[in-house]
Specification:
The complex is a heterotrimer. Chain A is an all-alpha fold. Chain A has 14 helices and no strands. Chain A has two domains: 37 residues, no CATH class; 230 residues, Orthogonal Bundle (MetI-like fold). Helix content of chain A is 76%, strand content 0%. In chain A, helix 4 crosses helix 10 and helix 12 packs antiparallel against helix 14. The two termini of chain A are 39 Å apart. Chain B has two domains: 226 residues, P-loop containing nucleotide triphosphate hydrolases (Rossmann fold, 3-Layer(aba) Sandwich); 110 residues, OB fold (Dihydrolipoamide Acetyltransferase, E2P), CATH 2.40.50. The two termini of chain B are 43 Å apart. By secondary structure, chain C is mostly helical. Chain C has a domain of 197 residues: Orthogonal Bundle (MetI-like fold). Helix content of chain C is 71%, strand content 0%. In chain C, helix 1 crosses helix 12 and helix 9 runs antiparallel to helix 12.
Chain lengths: 300, 361, 287
C-alpha cells in the first residue's frame, strides 16, 4: 500500500524490506492468525496441557494412566471395532459404487445425481441419521414392523440399534457416500489407454486388474479407508442421539466425563481422552496424506 | 504368434465398415500394406482414421469387413490375441512402473522368463536411446521420452503390426520433428509393418512410404507422398494437403478458363460449366506490372512470408487474394506494395464444383 | 470394448445401483412413513407430526436461532477469510502454506475432542461477555474453515488475482474498490459455495452446541425426539430436503466440469459434514 501502483518498485521494496522495514505485510494476516490461535490452537494447548497436569496445576501422568481403566479400554476397543468395520464396508461398497459411476457417462445426469446425493448423504450424519434409523429399525420402525408381520423379530436379542452391529450399519450409511466422494477422483484418473495398452500387449481382464488398475488404485483405496476410519472414530452426534445412557464408544465417554460430577472432579481425564483421540486421528490423517501424494502423482 | 524381427507381415483391410449411434465412422475402407511398409492415414478429425486403426488393433469390432495379418483372418480376434503394438497420443505409459518395467510388461504377459525380459527390455531401450532412463517413472520423463519408451514397449513383443495413434500430437514442435525421424529410423531397423495415424500433413508426408488421405470415412487417395502432393486425385486431397488457390472459372472443351488463362485439366472429360480451379502456389509466378493496365491477373503484393529457401507472396487482385510461392531470391524483387502481374504454369489442374472449401485449415 | 465385456459391465452397474439405492432409500422412505402415521395401525396417514413441528416450542425457537448462527458464521467466515487469502496471495505468498495448514487443521481435531479445550474459553466468555447462543459462532467459524478455505481457494486460483488487482490499481483503484468491484464479482460461485457449505455445516452441528449447553436445531431435534419421535423424524426429513435443495442449487450455479481432477483432501468432520466441493478443475489437458 505504500509503494502503490508500480509493481516493480513494490517487488523490489519487498525483497529489500526483510529485516529493516516494519513487517507491514504481516499485519494483514494478523486478524486471521489471532483468531485461529485463540479458538483453535489455544484449546488444543489447553487439552495437551491439561492432560499432563492435576487440578491444582502440578505436572502428572495420572490422567494418562487413568485411561488404563477397564471401561475406558473397552470403549476404545468398541470405537475401533465399529470404525474398522464401517470403514471396510464403506470402502468396499463405496469403491464399487465409484467404479460403477466412473464407467458411466462423465457428463450424464445420472452421475451428477449420484454425486449430489452422496454429498447430501455424507453430511446426513448425526442426529438426523439417528432418527432415520429409528424410523427404520427402531422399536416401531418400518422394517421392524414389516419383519414382525412376517414372523421375524429383530428385537429377540435386544435392540439392534444399540448394539455394535446396529451401529456399524448406521455408520456405514454415511461411510459409503463419503468413500464415493473421496475415491471417485482416483477412479476417474484411470486412463482408458492403460487398459488398451494392456490388451494390445496380450493381457486380459485379470492381468489388467492384477498388474495395472489394482496397483494403481491400491494407495488411494487404502488412504480413503483410513479416512473413513478416522471419520467413524470421531463421530459423536449419531451415537449420542441413539444411546442416551452409557458410554460404549470413546466420544461418549468424553461427553460423560464432561457433564457428570465424577467428570468434574477429574478434568484431566477428559482432556487425556481428547488428546488420545486427536493423536489417533492425526496419525491416520498423516498416513492418508502420504498415500495421497503417490496417488496424485500417478492418477492426475 | 510372434513374427521374427526384421520380417514384416502383409496387412490387409477389406471393406471395413463401422458406425455407431447413427454416425458412420468408416464407410468401406480397403487397403493393403506391404510387409515392413509404413502407411500414414491422414485426415481431419472425424475422418475415420482413428477408427480404422482401432479396428486393426481389435479394440473395436467392425460392423462388416475383414482384417488380415499375413493372410490370416484376425477380424474375430480380440485385441489381446492379435499381437499388435500400440503407441497412444497421451498417457501411453503405466505410471506406477519404471521405463524398463513398462517395456518388460508385454514380455511378461507373453510368458517370457525374467532374465530374458530384462535382456530384451534393455535392448529395446537401447534401440530408442533411453538406456540411461531405465529406472525412471513416467512423471520423471519428458513427453518425447515417454513416447520413445512407449515405442520400445510396443516393439518389445515383436508385434505383427505397429500402430501409432497421433503419437506426436501432444508434443512440442521441436520435439515433434526429432521424434518423427526417430520413429522412422527405428521402424526401418525393426522392419515391422506400421500404420501411422495423424492429422498433420507434414508429418505424414515426411515419414511414410505411402499416405492414405481419408475424409468422412472413405479413403480418397492412397499414394506415395510425392504423388499425394503433386498429383492429388480429388479436390479434397488437393485442399487438405498443401496450400491451394481457388480460382473461379469456366470449363469448356476439356479445359478450364480462369482469369483469362486456359489451363489443361487432370480429368479431361469434365462437363462444361462454372467451376473452381485448384492451383498450387508453386505454379504461380510473378512478374513486374510494366504497362500498368489492370487485368484479371494484375494486383498488389500484400505480404511476403519468408520461409527459408522459398517465400510465399500473397497478392491482392482486387476481388480475391492469390498465393504464389517462389525462390526467395526472386521474391525479394516484389516487396509489399509492388504492383505485379501473375502467370500460371499450365499444369493440369483439378476442379471443384462446391462454393466454398470443404475443409477448415 | 467387446460386446460381452460391455454387457457384463452394465449388469454390474445395474446391480450396484439397485442394491445400494435400496439401502439408501430405505431409511428415507421409512422416515416419510413414520412421520405420516396415524394414531393406530389402521388410522389413515396424517401430517400431524409435521404440523407439530411448528407447535413444539423447542423447535420453533431453535430453527431461527440456527439460521441466525448460520448467517453470522457465513458472514464472519467471509470477512475473516477472504481478505486474508487475498492478502496472502498478493503480499505474503510465503505464508501460504501456514495459512493452508491452519485452515485444514480443524479436520484433524475431532469436534468431541476440541470441545474439551474450548469449554474453558466459553466459560470465560459467558461470564464476561455474553451468554447468548450466538457466541457459538466463534467456534463454528473454526469448524467451517476447511470447507470454506477449499471453496475460496478454488475460486481464487481460477482467476489471476495478481494480474487483475495490478490492472485495477494501475487504473487508479483503491484496495477497497479492488476487493469489491474486481475480486468479489469474479468469485461469485466460490463465495456462494463457501457460504452454502458453511450453512450446511452449522445447521447440522450438534457436538459443540450440546456440550456447551446451548440448544440449537440439532440439539432441539434430539431433545424433542426423546418425547415424540414422530416430530423429530419429520424435522429430520425436512432438513434432508433442505440439504438436498441446497446442493441442487450449488450444482446448478457451479460451472459443470468434465471431471474432478484434483483429489479433494476431504478429512473427517463431525459425521463427515462433507459436501462435494464444487472446486473441480477441468481434467488435465492432453499434453
Amino acid at each position: 500500500m505504500t509503494s502503490a501502483g508500480n509493481p516493480a518498485v513494490e517487488t523490489a521494496a519487498r525483497s529489500e524490506g526483510g529485516g529493516r522495514r516494519l513487517p507491514l505485510p504481516w499485519l494483514g494476516v494478523m486478524p486471521f492468525l489471532l483468531y485461529v490461535g485463540l479458538f483453535l490452537l489455544l484449546p488444543t494447548v489447553i487439552i495437551a496441557f491439561g492432560s499432563f497436569t492435576t487440578k491444582q496445576g502440578d505436572p502428572t501422568l495420572n490422567n494418562i494412566a487413568g485411561i488404563n481403566q477397564d471401561f475406558l479400554i473397552k470403549a476404545f476397543v468398541t470405537s475401533t471395532t465399529i470404525s474398522v468395520a464401517s470403514a471396510l464396508l464403506g470402502a468396499i461398497f463405496g469403491a464399487m459404487l465409484a467404479y460403477a459411476v466412473a464407467t458411466g457417462n462423465p457428463r450424464g445426469v445420472f452421475r451428477r445425481i449420484v454425486t449430489s446425493m452422496s454429498g447430501v448423504l455424507a453430511q446426513f450424519g448425526g442426529v438426523t441419521l439417528a432418527f432415520a434409523f429409528i424410523a427404520t429399525i427402531g422399536n416401531v420402525g418400518f422394517v421392524t414392523i414389516f419383519l414382525q408381520s412376517h414372523g421375524i423379530d429383530i428385537y429377540a436379542n435386544g435392540a439392534p440399534l444399540y448394539q455394535i452391529s446396529g451401529l456399524i450399519v448406521v455408520y456405514t450409511y454415511f461411510q459409503i457416500p463419503l468413500m464415493l466422494l473421496v475415491f471417485l477422483p482416483a477412479v476417474d484418473g484411470i486412463r482408458p489407454q492403460w487398459r488398451e495398452a494392456t490388451e494390445s500387449l496380450g493381457g486380459g481382464t485379470w492381468h489388467y486388474w492384477r498388474y495395472v488398475a489394482g496397483p494403481l488404485l491400491a494407495p488411494a483405496f487404502l488412504g480413503c479407508t483410513l479416512l473413513l476410519f478416522a471419520n467413524a472414530f470421531s463421530a459423536y452426534a449419531t451415537v449420542a442421539a441413539l444411546i442416551t445412557q452409557g458410554g460404549i464408544v470413546v466420544p461418549l465417554q468424553i461427553s460423560n466425563l464432561f457433564t457428570s460430577e465424577t467428570g468434574r472432579s477429574q478434568p484431566g481425564l477428559a482432556k487425556a481422552l481428547a488428546l488420545s483421540m486427536i493423536l489417533i486421528v492425526t496419525i491416520v490423517v498423516v498416513l492418508y496424506t502420504l498415500l495421497q501424494r503417490r496417488t496424485s502423482r500417478w492418477l492426475r | 504368434m510372434m513374427a521374427t524381427a526384421g520380417a514384416g507381415v502383409e496387412v490387409r483391410l477389406e471393406d471395413l465398415r463401422r458406425s455407431y449411434a447413427g454416425v458412420t465412422a468408416l464407410d468401406g475402407l480397403s487397403l493393403t500394406m506391404a510387409p515392413g511398409e509404413l502407411v500414414a492415414l491422414l485426415g481431419p478429425s472425424g475422418c475415420g482414421k482413428t477408427t480404422a486403426m482401432r479396428l486393426v488393433a481389435g479394440l473395436e469390432e467392425a460392423n462388416s469387413g475383414r482384417v488380415m495379418f499375413g493372410g490370416k483372418d484376425v477380424t474375430g480376434l480380440p485385441a489381446n490375441k492379435r499381437d499388435v503394438g500400440m503407441v497412444f497420443q497421451a498417457y501411453s505409459l503405466f505410471p506406477h512402473m519404471t521405463a524398463q518395467q513398462n517395456v518388460a510388461f508385454g514380455l511378461s504377459l507373453h510368458k517370457v522368463g525374467a532374465a530374458e525380459q530384462k535382456k530384451r527390455s534393455g535392448e529395446m531401450l537401447e534401440l530408442v536411446g533411453l538406456s540411461k532412463y531405465a529406472n525412471r517413472y513416467a512423471h520423471q520423463l519428458s513427453g518425447g521420452q515417454q513416447q520413445r519408451v512407449a515405442l520400445a514397449r510396443a516393439l518389445a513383443i515383436q508385434p505383427t503390426v505397429l500402430l501409432l495413434d497421433e503419437p506426436l500430437s501432444a508434443l512440442d514442435a521441436k520435439v515433434r520433428s526429432r521424434l518423427r525421424d526417430e520413429i522412422r529410423r527405428v521402424q526401418l531397423e525393426v522392419g515391422t509393418t506400421t500404420l501411422f495415424v495423424t492429422h498433420d500433413q507434414e508429418e505424414a508426408l515426411a515419414i511414410a512410404d505411402r499416405v492414405g488421405v481419408m475424409n468422412a470415412g472413405r479413403l480418397e487417395q492412397l499414394d506415395s507422398p510425392v504423388a499425394i502432393y503433386s498429383r492429388p486425385a480429388t479436390p479434397f486431397v488437393a485442399e487438405f494437403v498443401g496450400l491451394t488457390n481457388r480460382l473461379e472459372g469456366t470449363v469448356r472443351d476439356g479445359q478450364v478458363e480462369v482469369r483469362g488463362v486456359r489451363l489443361p485439366l487432370v480429368k479431361s472429360d469434365m462437363a462444361d460449366g462454372a467451376a473452381v480451379a485448384l492451383v498450387r502456389p508453386e505454379a504461380v509466378s510473378l512478374g513486374p506490372d510494366e504497362d500498368s493496365v489492370p487485368g484479371p491477373l494484375t494486383g498488389t503484393v500484400i505480404t511476403v512470408a519468408f520461409l527459408g529457401a522459398t517465400s510465399r507472396v500473397s497478392v491482392d487482385l482486387g476481388d480475391m487474394t492469390v498465393l504464389a510461392q517462389l525462390p526467395t531470391a526472386q521474391a525479394s524483387a516484389y516487396p509489399a506494395g509492388t504492383r505485379v502481374r501473375l502467370a500460371i504454369r499450365p499444369d493440369p489442374v483439378l476442379i471443384a464444383r462446391e462454393e466454398k472449401a470443404p475443409v477448415e485449415a | 470394448m467387446s460386446r460381452s465385456r460391455r454387457i457384463k459391465l452394465q449388469v454390474f452397474r445395474a446391480t450396484i445401483f439397485i442394491l445400494l439405492g435400496a439401502f439408501f432409500l430405505l431409511p428415507i422412505g421409512a422416515m416419510f412413513e413414520f412421520s405420516t402415521r396415524g394414531n393406530s395401525v389402521t388410522a389413515p396417514r396424517t401430517m400431524e407430526a409435521w404440523a407439530a413441528i411448528f407447535q413444539t416450542a423447542d423447535l420453533v425457537k431453535a430453527i431461527p436461532v440456527s439460521l441466525e448462527l448460520a448467517l453470522i458464521t457465513s458472514v464472519g467466515m467471509l470477512v475473516l477469510l477472504l481478505p486474508t487469502m487475498v492478502w496472502v496471495r498478493l503480499r505474503l505468498p510465503r505464508i501460504h502454506r501456514i495459512v493452508e495448514f491452519l485452515c485444514l487443521l480443524p479436520l484433524t481435531i475431532p469436534a468431541i475432542a476440541l470441545v474439551v479445550g474450548v469449554a474453558p474459553l466459553y466459560h470465560w466468555i459467558e461470564i464476561n461477555l455474553s451468554d447468548s447462543i450466538l457466541i457459538l459462532s466463534f467456534v463454528y467459524l473454526i469448524i467451517v474453515l476447511p470447507y470454506s478455505y477449499r471453496a475460496l481457494d478454488a475460486g481464487l486460483a481460477a482467476i489471476d488475482i495478481k494480474t487483475l488487482s495490478e490492472a485495477a490499481r494501475s487504473l487508479g483503484a483503491g484496495w477497497g474498490t479492488v476487493m469489491m468491484r474486481v475480486i468479489v464479482p469474479n468469485m461469485s460461485t466460490a463465495l456462494l459455495n463457501a457460504c452454502m457449505l458453511s450453512v450446511a455445516v452449522v445447521l447440522g452441528e450438534f457436538t459443540f452446541a450440546q456440550l456447551l449447553y446451548f440448544e440449537n436445531l440439532q440439539v432441539a431435534i434430539a431433545y424433542v425426539g426423546l418425547v415424540s419421535a414422530g416430530t423429530s423424524i419429520a424435522v429430520s426429513v425436512a432438513s434432508l430436503i433442505f440439504a438436498f435443495t441446497l446442493l441442487m442449487i450449488l450444482s446448478f450455479f457451479g460451472r459443470p466440469r468434465e471431471r474432478v481432477a484434483r483429489e479433494e483432501e476431504l478429512l473427517p468432520g463431525t459425521e463427515s459434514r462433507i459436501l462435494p466441493l464444487r472446486n473441480s478443475f477441468i481434467g488435465v489437458p492432453d499434453k
